[in-house]
Amino acid sequence: MRECRFRPDIRKQFSTVSVVKHWNRLPREVVDAPSLEALKIRLDGALNNLILLKMSLLVAGGLD
To answer: Which of 43, 48, 4 is nearest to 27 (CA)?
Structure first.
């Protein structure tokens, strides 16, 4: 029988930790949305801006 060991990094395996990490990186106007519908619209806009920024950096040669 294998002995169970305590793993201090087990917390990193939970999806809530991953979600919180990404949530904390969102712009304030997305996080402070007054409703779910407003959150969806603002999140869509923020993600589109991020994609456009990455694409322009690729074209300019800023990303490898």
So the answer is: 43
Torsion angle (degrees, nearest 10) of CA 49, 54, 58, 61: 100
User: Look-up: residue for tokens 């619209």?
Assistant: 41
Q: What is the pLDDT of residues 40-59, one digit of tens each?
A: 999 999 999 989 988 898 88
Task: Show the DSSP H helices in the chain as ranges.
Answer: 15-24, 28-31, 36-60
Give the residue from 22, 44, 18 showing the smallest Cα distance to 33. 44
On whether the CB atoms of residues 44 and 33 are closer than 8 A, the answer is: no
Q: Which of 12-16, 27-31, 47-51, 58-62 has the lowest mean pLDDT?
A: 12-16
